[in-house]
Amino acid sequence: MTVMGKEQGFYQVFEVFSRRTPEAPLQHQFSLLAPNEELALVMAQENFMRREPVADLWVVKRDYIRRINEEEKVALKRLDNKDYRLTRGYGDLKKRWRKYEQNVFDEKEILSWKGEIRR
What we know:
By secondary structure, the protein is an alpha+beta fold. The protein has helices at about 35-50, 70-80, 95-105, 105-115, and strands spanning about 1-5, 5, 10-20, 25-35, 55-60. A hairpin with a 2-residue loop joins strand 1 and strand 2. The chain is elongated. It comes from Geobacillus thermodenitrificans.
């Protein structure tokens, strides 16, 4: 196995993921070299859990993680047109609201009319 241009031989590459709380998303923490899954888990616990509180720890052999290829990336570009989700059209909302508030009658002005009919 080759990792970053180096031959690993006996060791395998594992990726370590963790959660700080049970509700938190998994976050990638680091990669490590170990001869098997059991030692990889022990090494991850020793290197990571002693530093931070952890609710969940996942150790996954890198070979088991599938990455999308270039052909599949092309398919993602078709799904990328999500401009309708952006809120660019509301950038001037504060300015428009201020203008609207200036045209609204306040209580003091309404009470000053005293029976006058305004058109």
